[in-house]
Amino acid sequence: MPRYHPDKFRLKSSMMRPEMPMGLIERRPPLETQQSTIWTRRQQAVCVRRAYKKYGQSSNPHVILDGLNMTVPKGCIYGLLGASGCGKTTLLSCIVGRRRLNAGEIWVLGGKPGSTGSGVPGPRIGYMPQEIALYGEFTIRETMQFFGMINGMNPEQVDEKIEFLLKFLQLPPASRPVKNLSGGQQRRVSFAAALLHNPELLILDEPTVGVDPVLRQGIWDHLVHLTKDGGTTVIITTHYIDETRQAHMIGLMRGGKFLAEESPTSLLHKYNCQSLEDVFLKLSVIQNRGKRRRSSILHDITAAIAVPETSPVPAVEALNSICDNTSEMSGEFGDSISPVPLSKRMSICSMQVNNVEMELPPEANIKMSLFDRCKLYQSHHMRALIWKNFLWMWRNVAVMMFIVGLPVAQIVLFCLSIGKDPYGLHLAIVNHETNNKTCPPTDSCELTQLSCQYLYQIELRRQVLDYFDDEESAFRAVKLGKAWGALSFTSNYSISLKERMDEGQSTPDFVIDDSIVSIWLDESNQQISTLLRRDLLFAFQDFATTLAATCNFSTKAVANPIKFNRPIYGPFIPNFTDFAAPGVILTIIFFLAVALTSGAMLIERNEGILERSLVSGITGIEVLLGHVVCQLLIMVFQSLMVIAFALIVFDITNEGDVFWICLLTILTGLCGMCFGFVVSCITDSERNATYLAMGSFLPIVMLCGIIWPVEGMHATMKSLSFILPLTQSTESMRSMLARGWPITEPSVYIGFCSTLIWISVFLTSSILLIKFKKG
Ligand SMILES: Nc1ncnc2c1ncn2[C@@H]1O[C@H](COP(=O)(O)OP(=O)(O)OP(=O)(O)O)[C@@H](O)[C@H]1O
């Protein structure tokens, strides 16, 4: 069950305000005395005192709210008016608990927004942000179902409400996707979502933009109806100043302050104007005059404060005078600002401003058990988020299939293109023994054809032999890039080799020289030259072995004095695919998870949906968990597919336990997801997230021993590599795949531990960033 059922609070509010039903304005104190009336917190839906809010650095602050006071009585419609950019949205964000003031206080429905047990943000509030903040892929009904679920409504209640709202707001059928609606219709759906759960406080940021005059009137009539019994309070911003004539009270905002905060009729009467726009203009002129006046007072007070030691009394008088003047201005502008800096102003004038009871009203002390306080999530929130995430995936099925299939495509690409030995390499051959004629493929024991036997072994390794008449033309071929190396045989190669084999130690030097194959390689490509050297050596070993077996030659004299026996781990001829596969599998899963998670979170945030959900009472941790649950399923599937393709289809060497291999891959994906959360928390746009993800990709890949063994790195890089998220897990994966080591081996379990540590680091960082990254 939700903690704050709307009906429960509605009941409470109406019980508390039996004297505030219809005709709120008429029942208020006379207009002239309203300014000085002390509304107790019990009667206030919103109370803002000395609000100060700035953006930017302290050295160059952009002050948005400058000592603003605001009082919204319960059960009224409060029109918040002001020029574009004056700070209305900022003020509303502070009221709903999404931004923090730099100084001052806000009380909403009896509690401080964001404090435990205040219910704000939460279902006590209905918030319609300025942007549409809806999922375009969802239908109107699904949109309502989502917000209904968040607010703890059951499906029947939602259906009932949808029917009413569709009719009332003249919306198309509920099965229409939001993205196919006109701009005005989308705004009305957004409005409907805010109204859905009968909140106590309705905050509407420009709900009538793009709405025709008839419907606009209908919306206002509905707001009047909602506030009729005093159970609902509405704060509304609009650019159509004159439509707020129907509001019970309006606050005219300018330069971070309120020019006035009164009922529209009172304002028109007081300033003797025909329209509220004229009142606004008049007050702006008065405010400008006031500023000039205050600036001259400031000049006086500065002079007075400058001589405190010699003349303390005038300074005190001057301070008193500024308070008096501020007080006067306060009355004039419905505000309490003064030209002295905020901290000084607060202490000097606190007596005049602080005319509001400070005790916490009963509804703020909503009892919450320790269990409730420690709960990481609420089940109906999680249900709504998971349902929404799956629905979003279903609606974007083509994108999702691409995302699911991407890692498989990548591992297929890797296995088909990386790590196989190069073949078809051209070698320039100068064979004086056969007068530079092409050798027939042979392993005959004819003495004159020993060079041909060796060349035959090279050809068996799928390299291409091109014959040249002399060394000079062979070198030219290498220099022109037409061959990777040149091989030259002397005219009496076979005889010399035979003699060397027969005579062993006593072979004369000139015979040894003639029995040597001279090789010149193009070493510009390290991988090719290394593998070519290996092929030439192995070809010679096979050639010598064949000679010994078929021609009864003693090959000891030409055999390599070092013997490599059967390897302890790995195949006799290791391949690069086996070396790179562990790192590549983990990298693919890690970075796709980063992209998927950060992308999903940023889309949600930039379209305003995250903000709206958070105002509905969903916590950052719940949003995170909602994504973890849905994306974990995708990621587990991706991981299993990648492992299956690597081990079964492409037969990558595996000596280990598949369970642990899969588990490590899934944990690495989870780690990537958590990193994705961090990326989405510290960046504002998809572009910056892409830069950050790409920027971290290369260092991680380069330093984690995926491309090159960590053992070969510079000492500093080695230390850095040690702590990176993929280094230990890659080593662990390699130990399992290539050596078949169990989880009990340190190099295996350290990989698991390192991944778990990184998961907790990323998760904690993102939770902290979500919690504390408020404007
Ligand atoms: N996150 C932010 N960082 C820096 N400045 C900001 C930020 N958000 C808003 N501002 C600035 O604060 C000022 C007030 O913005 P706000 O959105 O509150 O105005 P508004 O009165 O709601 O305007 P409008 O009626 O056009 O929606 C603007 O100058 C805006 O550029």
Automatic annotation (TrEMBL):
This is ABC transporter-like,ABC transporter, conserved site,P-loop containing nucleoside triphosphate. One of its GO terms (cellular component) is membrane. The keyword Membrane applies. It is a multi-pass membrane protein. SUPFAM superfamilies: P-loop containing nucleoside triphosphate hydrolases. Keywords: ATP-binding, Membrane, Nucleotide-binding, Transmembrane, Transmembrane helix. The keyword Nucleotide-binding applies. It is found in: Membrane. Residues 544-773 form the ABC transmembrane type-2 domain. Residues 46-280 form the ABC transporter domain. Signal peptide: none annotated. The chain crosses the membrane at residues 397-419, 579-603, 624-652, 658-679, 691-710, 748-770. One of its GO terms (molecular function) is ATP hydrolysis activity.
